[in-house]
Amino acid sequence: SQQGEEDPQALSIQEGENATMNCSYKTSINNLQWYRQNSGRGLVHLILIRSNEREKHSGRLRVTLDTSKKSSSLLITASRAADTASYFCATWSTSYGKLTFGQGTILTVHP
Amino acid sequence: ETGVTQTPRHLVMGMTNKKSLKCEQHLGHNAMYWYKQSAKKPLELMFVYSLEERVENNSVPSRFSPECPNSSHLFLHLHTLQPEDSALYLCASSQGTGTRKETQYFGPGTRLLVL
Q1: A42 and B106: CB-CB below 8 Å?
Q2: Angstrom distance (rounded) from CA A31 to CA A25
Q3: CA–CA distance from B47 to each of A54, A87, B66, B67, B74 (Å)?
Q4: Does pLDDT of B32 surpass 60?
Q5: What is the pLDDT averaged over residues B1-26?
Q6: CA of A103 to nearest chain B CA: how many angstroms apart?
Q7: Which of A41, A91, A95, A100 best probes binding to B when mutated, by most B CB atoms within 10 angstroms?
């Protein structure tokens, strides 16, 4: 299975703090993506990092990828209450031809 | 808004009912997907349509029947469902060719409760 696993399952922080979520996967990938899901709604694509990239930034988001360890991390800096959501990593492999999602990390940011 | 809409947003049905979920995308994509999201489980890919042809069916029970009449619309017809089918059903779309198909755009989902 290519399934990713996020860690931690839940994270609770105060506004202004940084939030770090980790993702591990099992097989070779072409890229890894992070999505956000607000409660009971659809997923929103946040950022994509390719297998030949090690770090990528988008606004307050920083993603790293270590293909030797088959792991990725998502860092949200200076968190806001509006960042409260579930965050999923998803791996894409041309071999599988589909996105495979992990179980997600529930982030709660307290005002 | 992601450009993908789903109706209805909430649905309650009995096990003998027949209902349909609708998805419409306004992004000019040519691939569409149905996912099932149950509590404490990863998203499960159910069906994939590319250029209106079904290209994947992940061993989904026949009580779920997809239909893709054109590249902008996707339906999921439901018939004699079971309580364990209660979940959030998500539709997504992507550009079906090249590297752009790797990023998917999701609708808000239909919350289904089977009694």
Answers
A1: yes
A2: 11
A3: 32, 23, 7, 10, 10
A4: yes
A5: 93
A6: 4
A7: A41
How do residues B34-93 score in pLDDT, each as one tens digit? 999 998 788 999 998 887 777 777 789 999 999 999 999 999 999 999 999 999 999 999
In angstroms, the CA B74 to CA B72 distance is 7
- How far is it, in rounded angstroms, from Cα B22 to Cα B3? 14
Residue in A with minimal Cα distance to B33: A98
Cβ–Cβ under 8 Å, residues B4 and B25: yes
Residues 6 or more apart in contact with residue A59 via CB below 8 angstroms: none
Shortest Cα distance from A52 to chain B (angstroms)?
15
Euclidean distance between CA atoms A103 and B35, whole angstroms: 14
- Chain segment A10-44, per-residue pLDDT in tens: 999 999 999 999 999 998 999 999 999 998 788 99
